[in-house]
Amino acid sequence: MEEQKISIIHETDDYLVIDKPAGLVVNRSNTAKGITLQDMIEERSPVVGEWDPEEVAPSDFTARSGIAHRLDKDTSGILLVAKNEEFFENVLDQFKERKIEKEYAAVVHGTPEEDTLEIDAPIKRSPKDPMKMAIVAGGKEAHTFVRKLNELEIDGNLFSYLQILPSTGRTHQIRVHLAAALLYIAGDPIYCPKNLLTIGREAFGRMMLHATKIRFFDPHLHEFVQFESPLPTEYLPFTSKI
Questions:
Q1: Where is the Pseudouridine synthase RsuA/RluA-like domain (predicted)?
Q2: Known catalytic residue: 19?
């Protein structure tokens, strides 16, 4: 676990803003293989993962090593990590109250019928496949706003570059909502049909979902702050033509 592998966008006494690479698992679990971002954070700041053995269990802050939200393994981009329990609880409250704004960039197969799209559909674990989330009646409220920024043909295949603004943060929300709209994220190993998955992997070599921005209230500065993660090089063909 090498400290330099953590790319830090910004750091204060209260938090880290990290630029996570695609392919890195965020949280430890029974199914996670290899080193996780959580391991790397604890290696960098051991106190984050320590807890009093007389306690029945570690606090959420300790158990999660300050990681305030998650990105899927194959998603890259910006991630907020608390360095103390007070800020951790503050951020969780901001998420619950939907004060935190996040923005993503995605490349999908095909193109939407309209340049903007709002998807409001509940999400829960798929009753057909426990590895997937799905749009299911009675699931948790989920809302995603989509704006098309550009489109590009690569080796005879049409792709669209999208700005994604989710106002809720359900597991796999963006991936599920876009798949339901038949806008499969290029390289998505779970929701993309096999024939398209092969095309996307050959074109980009990764899943094309990147967390670009986060905006939240900094209680010490008493103002909202915003941080950005630069787009990976795979996105450059789309941005150079805007």
A1: 14-180
A2: no
- Which CATH number describes the domain made up of 1-97? 3.30.2350.10
Q: Render pLDDT for 34-84 as a digit per residue (tens, 0 to 9).
A: 889 999 998 887 655 444 444 444 478 888 899 989 999 999 999 999 999
From the candidates 14, 19, 72, 74, which is the catalytic residue? Answer: 72
Question: Over the chain, what HEC string results?
Answer: CCHHHCEEEEECCCEEEEEECCCCCCCCCCCCCCCCHHHHHHHHCHHHHCCCCCCCCCCHHHHCCCECCCCCCCCEEEEEEECCHHHHHHHHHHHHCCCCEEEEEEEEECCCCCCEEEEECCEEECCCCCCCEEECCCCECCEEEEEEEEEEEECCEEEEEEEEEECCCCCCHHHHHHHHCCCCECCCCCCCCHHHHHHHHHHHCCCCEEEEEEEEEECCCCEEEEEECCCCHHHHHHHCCC
What CATH number labels 101-214+231-242? 3.30.2350.10
In the chain, domain spans? 1-97, 101-214+231-242
